[in-house]
């Protein structure tokens, strides 16, 4: 520990890194949890694109919150996934959803060994 600093473990690790997790999927989830994905609103700010619209619903906004939970298409995808896992979930802001997922993933195994 003398060569590197020890940081506290991210409490959300359980939704990103778990047994049988596919590394590239875990990486994308990690980027999403940290809100580091290059959504169109960020690309617009960087000057990479000139306008934004959601690829799923064509609304003129593609932010992190929209692409994952506000978009009617992706919201329905999440509702199907949550239903298949027999979980109770009320869609809400990103931070609340991550907290909910972290708490529920501790209780439920997606891939029983």
From TrEMBL:
* Keyword tags: Membrane, Transmembrane, Transmembrane helix
- Return any one Pfam family short name: zf-RVT
According to the record, the segments passing through the membrane are 13-33
Out of the domains of life, which is the source? Answer: Eukaryota
Give the InterPro entries listed for this entry.
Answer: RVT-Znf
Location of the Reverse transcriptase zinc-binding domain: 3-78
Recorded protein name is Reverse transcriptase zinc-binding domain-containing protein
């Amino acid at each position: 520990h003398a060569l590197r600093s020890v940081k506290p473990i991210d409490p959300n690790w359980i939704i990103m890194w778990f047994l049988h997790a596919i590394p590239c999927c875990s990486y994308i989830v990690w980027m999403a949890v940290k809100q580091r994905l290059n959504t169109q609103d960020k690309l617009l700010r960087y000057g990479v694109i000139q306008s934004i619209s959601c690829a799923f619903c064509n609304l003129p906004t593609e932010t992190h919150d929209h692409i994952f939970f506000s978009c009617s298409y992706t919201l329905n995808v999440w509702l199907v996934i949550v239903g298949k896992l027999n979980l109770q979930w009320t869609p809400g802001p990103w931070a609340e959803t991550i907290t909910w997922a972290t708490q529920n993933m501790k209780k439920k195994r997606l891939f029983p060994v």
